[in-house]
Amino acid sequence: MINNTPEIKLGIVAVSRDCFPNSLSENRRKAVVEAYDGDIYECPIIVENEIDMQNALKDLKEAECDALVVYLGNFGPETEETLLVKYFDGPCMVVAAAEETGDDLVGGRGDAYCGMLNASYNLKLRNLKAYIPEYPVGDAQDVAEMIKEFVPIATAVVAVRNLKIISFGPRPMNFLACNAPIKQLYNLGVEIEENSELDLFEAFNKHAGDARIPEVVKDMEAELGKGNMKPEILPKLAQYEITLLDWIEAHRGSRKYVTLTGKCWPAFQTQFGFVPCYVNSRLTKMGIPVSCEVDIYGTLSEFIGTVVSKDTVTLLDINNTVPKDMYESEIKGKYDYTLKDTFMGFHCGNTASTKLSFCSMKYQMIMARTLPEEVTQGTLEGDIVPGQITFYRLQSTADAKLRAYIAEGEVLPVATRSFGGIGIFAIPEMGRFYRHVLIEGNYPHHGAVAFGHFGKTLFEVFKMLGVEVSEIGYNQPKGVRYPTENPWA
């Protein structure tokens, strides 16, 4: 994969209330660092006052830390510990020490359980967001485990703040669902570069005869194997892939990470002479997510999932129901899901080959209904690999409010008997989630898919990015009613 996600450097600072021995915080910090199975910079300064706080921040900056653990080794100074969060340039976690032994509850009692309450209140007073674990108090080993859970959250936040999304073209006609205000992107720290399809077409034509094309074609042939059903289109697809990669490097600017989103119809096929699906899948596999239909929040969602999962993701339509006869014959009694728990996730062919059980690169059937088949070549088809998944999305509403959804489930090992990149998905209580989160929340048809269960981490990432908890939808368990759900339904 291309290096398109960060590897963060984590720092830890211990704080101490001046009426407690600072050695308590220092020794407990050392124990946490020793218990932590990973790279973490141990700031030697114990923060008791504002001068300590400034010196600690200077030390962390010189150590090039990207994320910070503020550790209450005892009750802690509520002003200085929250000023650390305010002035540190990166995501912060606040966590507290548990008492260690019943034999030392006089001089060795730290009261950080109490101090954590004051810390949370002061964070709110200053309008600061910090990651606080579900139960943020523990011994050295407990805190070390909490830090491990913080790392992917912090990494995602750092990644988003250093991201540029490059788009080509306006949203297609009748795809208003993907046309969300970009104001929230800037609020998140994301930069966006919007271009015309004509700009991309000009760059593509300038890459005709590029010396790198044969090498890329060879790599495509090796990837597709027997699934290479349209070998004659590979040189053009290789030319397009090189165009996009060169555009990224020429337009990255000050940003460390880049994602793309493009317009693949109605004129793309007739002018370029192919569809971009397969190339989109290859870039996504490289770690550069590419969304279709100029879905800007779709590619942002994919990028977050790539960082969190450290794996290839995809973007799919929440597309069609599973027929009753298919459910009865191939799912019922074999898997613990109702018909309404199942649906098919589909897209024309943008899912990476590594996330398909089998694949073939050929023409795009839907587009070929209205266009000559030869200009619709370049889509990657196959059934999506079975296993655990997380379906999720970060989205701006029409009035520029951030909201998100997360639902964990699985792709069933059941043949779809259909076309495109497609799988049979099963999510507990999907029917109710579909109605009272997706429809009620006015979400578009595109959802990002991470291969594994990452709901816990994504929930915290969305909170850290500023999504209100009330605006993060998830599939409520049976018996827990949605606010909009008819109680007599």
Overall description:
With 489 residues, this protein is of the alpha/beta class. The chain has helices at residues 22-35, 50-62, 78-87, 112-125, 140-161, 183-188, 197-206, 213-224, 234-251, 268-272, 277-286, 296-309, 324-330, 430-439, 455-464; strands at 10-15, 40-42, 67-72, 92-97, 137-138, 163-168, 191-195, 257-261, 290-291, 313-320, 342-347, 360-363, 377-383, 387-396, 402-411, 421-426, 446-450, 472-474. Helix 2 packs parallel to helix 3. It is globular. It starts with 9 loop residues before the first strand and ends in a 15-residue tail after the last strand. The model has no long low-confidence stretch (mean pLDDT 95).
Mean pLDDT: 95
- List how many beta strands DSSP finds: 18
Strand order of the largest sheet: 10-11-16-15-14-17
Strand content: 15-25%
In brief, what are we looking at here?
This protein is of the alpha/beta class and 489 residues long. The protein has 15 helices and 18 strands. The strands form 3 sheets. It has a 6-stranded antiparallel beta barrel with strand order 10-11-16-15-14-17, surrounded by 4 helices. It has a 5-stranded parallel β-sheet with strand order 2-1-3-4-5, sandwiched between helices.
Topology:
Elements (H helix, E strand, L loop, with lengths): L9 E6 L6 H14 L4 E3 L7 H13 L4 E6 L5 H10 L4 E6 L14 H14 L11 E2 L1 H22 L1 E6 L14 H6 L2 E5 L1 H10 L6 H12 L9 H18 L5 E5 L6 H5 L4 H10 L3 E2 L4 H14 L3 E8 L3 H7 L11 E6 L12 E4 L13 E7 L3 E10 L5 E10 L9 E6 L3 H10 L6 E5 L4 H10 L7 E3 L15
Parallel strand pairs: 1-2, 1-3, 3-4, 4-5, 6-7, 6-8, 8-9, 13-16, 15-18
Antiparallel strand pairs: 10-11, 10-17, 11-16, 12-13, 14-15, 14-17, 15-16
